[in-house]
Design a protein that fits this description.
Layout (H helix, E strand, L loop, with lengths): L6 E5 L3 H5 L7 H17 L3 E5 L6 H8 L11 H11 L5 E4 L9 E3 L8 E2 L26 H9 L8 E3 L5 E4 L2 H12 L6 H13 L3 E3 L6 E4 L3 H8 L50
Parallel strand pairs: 1-2, 3-4, 4-5
Antiparallel strand pairs: 6-7, 7-9, 8-9
Helix pairs in contact: 5-8
Length: about 280
């Protein structure tokens, strides 16, 4: 890229080391300048450095003195959602930090506030196959909060507790606790309330998906165009199936199959007074 070109290096405190090919004050800088000089002698017509004040080069100066974490990078949120649209929506960001997580639930490489766990490669609670395969809305818990809100808004029968305001992509939680309750049903979290839901919504402010409308209670706004919003929320026009009220307390993981019982026999076998199932089972 630079071979055969005249090079000018703008830097602050190492300009003299580059121009003088090192100094006696710092062995590390001397060795670095020597390597640079030897390489430049073979590949460049000329190279020189000019001093630039730290106050005029604050960001580069700070970066030059900091240890950059190679894991601190992030896809643009719109690109991320386009990928999700094609391959399905994950539920957990397995390699992330609070600064670059694309999902409210994430696993960090190091103990971090807000992370659901540490070190995804050793996390026993993460079922890897659940994040790679299957249609986007057929995996348990795969529906994200913003998609859930869009699904509610898309159904006119919900307009008594959540509805569009008529101003662009603005919507209002008319009954915020009802919205939170339904989200709790969706995620099997009986303690869900609006305070917890609103904290989750703040995550989307940072990601540029939605924002709070200033001066109005319970009013929010999606920041993207309607076509983009609905294409991301409903890939291939596939509407998610929200959990019904009767699914609230009982799920497949909590039930016990009765196929081993004889239909013609008494419902409870004679076990000498012992209960056939543990206390934690639903039967």
């Amino acid at each position: 890229m630079v071979s055969g070109k005249h090079i000018l290096v703008l830097t602050d405190n190492v300009a003299a080391h580059v121009n003088r090919q090192g100094s006696t004050h710092s062995k590390a800088l001397r060795d670095e300048a020597l390597r640079l000089g030897n390489w430049a002698e073979k590949h460049l017509p000329s190279i020189r450095a000019e001093h630039i004040s730290e106050t005029e080069n604050h960001q580069a100066d700070w970066l030059s003195r900091e240890t950059i974490d190679n894991g601190e990078w992030q896809l643009h949120p719109l690109i991320f959602h386009q990928i999700c649209k094609r391959f399905g929506h994950p539920t957990v960001d397995l390699f992330a930090t609070p600064q670059n997580a694309q999902l409210p639930e994430f696993v960090s490489r190091f103990p971090t506030a807000g992370a659901m766990d540490t070190d995804a490669l050793r996390c026993s609670d993460i079922k890897q196959e659940g994040y790679r395969e299957g249609p986007p809305y057929q995996r348990r818990g795969s529906l994200q909060l913003w998609q859930f809100l869009v699904a509610l808004l898309d159904d006119p029968s919900n307009s008594h507790f959540i509805a569009w305001t008529g101003r662009g992509m603005e919507f209002k939680l008319i009954e915020p606790e009802e919205v939170a309750r339904l989200w709790g049903i969706q995620k099997n979290r009986p303690a869900m309330n609006y305070d917890k839901l609103s904290r989750s919504l703040r995550y989307y402010y940072e990601k540029g998906i939605m924002q709070k409308v200033a001066g109005e209670r319970y009013v929010y706004k999606f920041v993207c165009e309607p076509e983009v919003l609905f294409s991301l929320a409903f890939p291939d026009n596939q509407r998610p199936t929200l959990k019904a009220e009767f699914e609230w307390h009982i799920s497949e993981e909590d039930t016990v199959p009765l196929s081993h019982l004889d239909e013609n026999a008494a419902y409870l076998p004679d076990l000498g007074g012992a209960q056939p199932y543990g206390k934690s089972c639903t039967y």
